[in-house]
Amino acid sequence: MFSILRSIWGVLLHTFAKRETVLYPEELPYLPPRARARIVLTRDPDGQERCVACNLCAAACPVDCISLQAAEDEAGRRYPSFFRINFSRCIACGFCEEACPTYAIQLTPDFELSERKRKDLVYEKEDLLIDGTGKYHGYNFYRQSGLAIRGKGKGEGDQENPPVDIRALHDPR
Amino acid sequence: MPLEGRVTTIYIDNLPYGVKDGQNLLQASLTLGFNLPYFCWHPALHSVGACRQCAVKVFKDESDTRGRLAMGCMTPATEGTRLSIEDPEAKAFRAGVIEWLMLNHPHDCPICDEGGECHLQDMTVMSGHNYRRSRFRKRTHLNQNLGPFLNHEMNRCIQCYRCVRFYRDYSGGRDFNVFASHDSVYFGRYEDGALESPFSGNLVEVCPTGVFTDKPFKEHPTRKWDLQTAPSVCTGCSLGCNIIVAERYGEVRRVLNRYNADVNRYFLCDRGRYGFDFVNSQRRLRLPLVDGRELVPEGSATQALSATEGGSPRPAPASSEAKGAVVRRAVARARDILHGSRRAIGIGSPRASVESNYALRSLVGPDNFCDGMTSGEHRLVGMMKDIVASGPVRSLSLAEVERADVVLVLGEDVVNTAPLLDLALRQAVRTRPEAVAEQLLRIPLWDDRAKREATQGKQGPLFVATPYPVSIDDIAVKSYRLSPDDIARLAQAVAYAIDPEGIAPLVGAADPLHVVAETIGGSLGLAARPLVIAGASLGSEAILRAAANVATALAKAGKKDAGLFLVAPEANSMGSALLGGMSLDEALEAVRTGGADTVVVVENDLTSRLKEASFRALFDSTKHSIVLDFFRNRTTELAEIVLPVATFAESSGTFVNNEGRAQRFFEVVNPDEIVSASWKWLGLLSGRGTGEEIAWDTLDDIIARISEDLPALAAIGSAAPGARDVPQVHRVPRDSHRVSGRTANVASLTVHEPPPPRDLDTPLSYSMEGSPRGRIPSSLIARIWAPRWNSVQALTRFQEEVGGPLKGGDPGALLFGPASDRTRAYFDGVPEAFAPDPRRPLAVAIRHVFGSEPLSALSRSVSERIPSRYVGITPDAARSLAVADGERVEVTVRDLRMELPVRIMAGLAEGLCALPEGLPDMPYVGLPAPAGILKRTAP
To answer: Domain A31-138 adopts which CATH fold?
Structure first.
């Protein structure tokens, strides 16, 4: 008997308690910047595509919803000739972001993906590419890589010595 | 590498293991399945002990607890050797070595094509080095342009020396070396330029990291785990090297070596590795043509495209029904023609599979079947088949060629007709000096550096008789430059020198060839495993006969291990010869006078085998023509009906190589519903009556029929398991277990993921699921991969022992029995001595590894290496004609007149001139034939 009365009292108190339910979408919940949802492809600080089409995101993806093809442009940079994410399959696990060696692929807090047709959830590279660096500023993969591209010759990267002159008798170093 | 059968017991981490005698600790550990990292050791290049990566702890005896570090690859596995791989000090040493090697290795993996199949990655992970401690700057190098096949990225080098050891020591290349010193050692050419060796592509697989990567592959790089792969057989020449073909997004991307201990072992030639690209050619046929017009499936976008572009683009997705309707229309039309014809002649092809040739043979009837070879080629291949099947001695496999100790090459320019034979001969000449070093100095066969120091480049006897200089001259004891007839006479004289009782001397016993023959005969007579090599490339039956006579003489002299190696012209020459058809000239005759009004041509561009006039006459005198081919050529242009067929990459079948080894190739690309194998099309055509029943449906069906019908080919069924032999759940997956993008690849077209294609013909599946790795039969190995071994070095996990046969026996089935029941009679007929006519030199065929094979010539990368046509003349002839190198002359051969630049060939035999055969810009001539050469008068 007492427990019933206590429960009724409890319910009564809750009637006046602060409401937990948020009136979405009028009121938007706070999402931390690292919340994982819609995937974007970012650019490096120079404004170039960061993705070098290494395929690691696709390999890491547990639902196999990333598909891409690598190519090389005339500057010698690798880029994806197409990059497709089927968001109707994506589970926002973030493995792709973790696998990405260039900080290109990043998950954003934007979870509001809803379409009337499933096909509209298939995003191509144009839909994924954003203009900024996303969460990781300042990183430029080609500054670290030993590959020569237009504007950065051999030995001009960070932590690199100038190329060896193999015909020299003495090493100038 | 002959290993004695004795077994030695060694102790690894205190457990006893039995290994074959004569191995080193690294070989033994890998054979036993241990993960011991290494770099500079390679199963074909053996040990040099340069990288220090395979260090293990070796203990004196049971009571020794301290032990000492030793390099696994440089320590013999002797009885009672105790070693530890897991010893902490050995592990720390190995981790230290890899850390040094990684000091200068660039941060390139994401953009490196080797990533995911990189031996350096595997070894780094295996050694436990995972965090860079060095804060110093990295050494960098400039790259070189090494031509159309290889990409060079020297920063990635870890100085294992494998490339230079393969290129110079193993394959005899000269234009690649190691430069500079200490930590700036550089591997490359003296200056930029295409690598000359036709084996350069192997550097992709030999290099443990990404210094040398596949350049054509770099146009559309794909990770190893994403490539759909299937076992296949190279179509580039008659040797039948085993390959793995890889596909992604419906396009063939690359070819890798597939180990077969009896055939190609570890290496491929560049024609085989890069020639596959014809599959992706712009000239591919994708739709049937009726009267020159494409039958376009309804609802496809091709109609508009093909009107504007010359090529035939892939049909845009049309419904299955629409495609089926197109197939039915083409088949109905072709059937009407066949039913209405009085006599249909079927022209097969030595480049088409046994199944396709057989299908044609049963469609038109055995009496109307032509094997698609010119009468000369037909006779030569027929004779070759007889010699191989029942000749005096056994036909050797390519791997056995490597073990021959004295070799006589008659008329074959091996590097250009069967490239890998050149590589095998380069190993053969080392066998004798190395055996001596092993016996006298007790140097084990795997100790490569010591072996080479001891032998000092000495080479065993190799004799070469060809009309012009050839690649193997540099390893020959003596090269003779003779006309085709004189080569046959020399061989006959050699046979006489070995068996003077059984064979008559040449007319005029004082012939100078007898003196030469004495030397060669004497050398062959002393050999344990003598070998005679001949082939079809000079078009001379006399050479084949004489070569067989030398082999017979050797057999009669009691050489049990004597061998013969005959090079056939094309990938399936032997297989089509076994079907027993008529020659192309007889087929022409049948059309002209035999009342035949229809021809069915299968995968044979007749312009490469017929003179222009005969070619025209054939199509003029037949009422109907049906051509099955995979790309547009002159033959498909003239045909009434053209059916698009699948290449080796899209269909399955069997090739018979030059030694009579039947080998199965499997489709790796699921063909479009319209493009299908020739034998499938012909099966549809052969259904009699109202037209719905089909003679055979699957590969199993047609192979069963061949086995029933032709006893000589009965063994092709055992070349590989059939689809029926393997239950559905144990099908071999074409995809790796890690393949990506399954739910996104076609999402742009449809989000309803289609089921994987069904494959009723083969025991493979278009899936990542299926038979566990350990249970795959050797003929179905689609991928060289093992846990922790992502690179091709995982091969040791598939072999019985390192460098030995594959587990479960090597793939393929020999069609001809052992040597015991062979006839040992001599052939008659020695040609007369060649009398040079300075005014009409005899034109002989010369071939080029890149260009003389028509399919690989369509490959974009190979086409960059094709020479343009020329005529080779002797310096004497050049002097009497007063022409300089490169000047144009007028050449008349068999009433064909050509204007060709001159190439002065020092060493070309007197009274000859050389014309390149099969080059894309070279018409069919029909060599050998006397030629008239005139200096072009200024216009």
So the answer is: Alpha-Beta Plaits (3.30.70)
